[in-house]
Amino acid sequence: MATIAANTAVNEPGPSQDKAATVDLQAIIRETQVGEVLDQLDRELVGLVPVKRRIREIAAYLAVTRARKALNLDASPPSLHMCFTGNPGTGKTTVALRMAEILHRLGYVRKGHVVSVTRDDLVGQYIGHTAPKTKEVLKKAMGGVLFIDEAYYLYRPENERDYGQEAIEILLQVMENNRDDLVVILAGYKNRMDTFFQSNPGMSSRIAHHIDFPDYSAEELLLIARKMVEQMHYRFNAGAETAMREYIAARLTQPNFANARSIRNALDRARLRQANRLFESPYGIDMEALMSLSEPDIRASRVFTQGSGGEAETGG
Amino acid sequence: MMTNPMQRLTQGQFSFLPDLSDAEIKQQIEYGLEKGYAWSVEYTDDPHPRNTFWEMFGMPMFDLKDAAGVMMELAACRKTFPNHYIRMMAFDSTRNVESITMSFIVNRPPSEPGFGLVRQEVQGRSLRYTVQGYSSAKPEGERY
Ligand SMILES: Nc1ncnc2c1ncn2[C@@H]1O[C@H](COP(=O)(O)OP(=O)(O)O)[C@@H](O)[C@H]1O
Ligand SMILES: [Mg+2]
């Protein structure tokens, strides 16, 4: 019998349980290296404080459940299906990938891959098309995480013959019967998700964890921009960062703003402009020039010229 | 002497062994997935050795990561055809291989009468031989 100290004493009376038995929670955390994933999450993602806290709580709960299972205190596996709500670009998909990693390391999914789908991947066009389509996706997701983006589109109350209902029913069945085989994460706007759950109590009752992703502040968006630039092996020149700060302030007030995704798109367009600038430059180009995003690359954006006139995400 | 003392069809892998348990089937599937094979489920009630093409139960399953998905398909096939022969097939899509690399039976009818030898007399004293399943006289779907 293992007798290593644990910081949480496991001593609830369980069925036919030796109360002196102990389990080393820290050892579980160490061996599964789940802490590494949590730290990586902290490092890589700017802000998202409440999300990170919830993920830590879930990870702790899963580690404790595993410890309880080692002592036969828990019979049935915990329900792990989740719902991530928040506006576009707030990091839901990114966090889902990390969550899969955490679940995998703690042994709650066998393979740890993520299959990301939307309504079109699950729902068919004619009678008899939906079931095989949904099942095909489910089969691919087995052993990992099924991430359903904008899940509320599965339910179309205005059309009572909509095939989405069939997909929902198959999903519910598998979510209940194959708890050991896959974890489902639903994602989408908060208010639409709430409406969806109200009309689909079966789905609502099977989701154990709800995590809400807040919008980023202008300050956080700038930090995210810096991080992205660094990851792409570029850097902001003198003046470029100030321009970026002003860009963010202007972009925030415009329609179709998509948080971190808008930042990524803006940087992609700035890179295009930089490339164009270098291409037309008569001078030799050094490493420094190849790596630098300069003020005009940012300021050429339509966000500055258009005011709050409604820049589309595809625009400059 | 009995020619079919085991009263069992012996085709594909493991067919001289006792039936694989679901856990053992799962292990074989997992092995195939690790090799990158695509599994598929096939069924028939015409197990004549020359009948190489059984019916496909759904499409071959590409891009699966875990055996649970394949087992789900097998469970569905068993539910639809509880008394048919069912076999698992692993397809290796590697260029220039592109063929079935594993195949084994995972479901059998409750009783397997086997095959009889049919002798046909031709041209005087010559004989032609063929085998015919004792169940094959009945129509499809009523054989087992
Ligand atoms: N907190 C963050 N820190 C750094 N990058 C982020 C953060 N949140 C999102 N991103 C980046 O923004 C982009 C969009 O994020 P994503 O996870 O797809 O959002 P969602 O799924 O909520 O729409 C991705 O490229 C991601 O790397
Ligand atoms: Mg997303």
From TrEMBL, chain A:
It holds the Pfam family AAA_lid_6. Residues 78-217 form the AAA+ ATPase domain. GO terms for molecular function: ATP binding; ATP hydrolysis activity. The keyword Secreted does not apply. Gene3D superfamilies: 1.10.8.60, P-loop containing nucleotide triphosphate hydrolases (3.40.50.300). The keyword Nucleotide-binding applies. Belongs to the CbxX/CfxQ family. This is Probable Rubsico expression protein CbbX. It comes from Solimonas aquatica.
From TrEMBL, chain B:
Keywords: Calvin cycle, Carbon dioxide fixation. One of its GO terms (biological process) is reductive pentose-phosphate cycle. Pfam families: RuBisCO_small. One of its GO terms (molecular function) is ribulose-bisphosphate carboxylase activity. Residues 10-109 form the Ribulose bisphosphate carboxylase small subunit domain. Signal peptide: none annotated. The basic functional RuBisCO is composed of a large chain homodimer in a 'head-to-tail' conformation. In form I RuBisCO this homodimer is arranged in a barrel-like tetramer with the small subunits forming a tetrameric 'cap' on each end of the 'barrel'. Heterohexadecamer of 8 large and 8 small subunits. RuBisCO catalyzes two reactions: the carboxylation of D-ribulose 1,5-bisphosphate, the primary event in carbon dioxide fixation, as well as the oxidative fragmentation of the pentose substrate. Both reactions occur simultaneously and in competition at the same active site. Although the small subunit is not catalytic it is essential for maximal activity. Belongs to the RuBisCO small chain family. HAMAP family: RuBisCO_S_bact (MF_00859). PANTHER family: RIBULOSE BISPHOSPHATE CARBOXYLASE SMALL CHAIN 1, CHLOROPLASTIC, RIBULOSE BISPHOSPHATE CARBOXYLASE SMALL SUBUNIT. This is Ribulose bisphosphate carboxylase small subunit. The gene is cbbS.
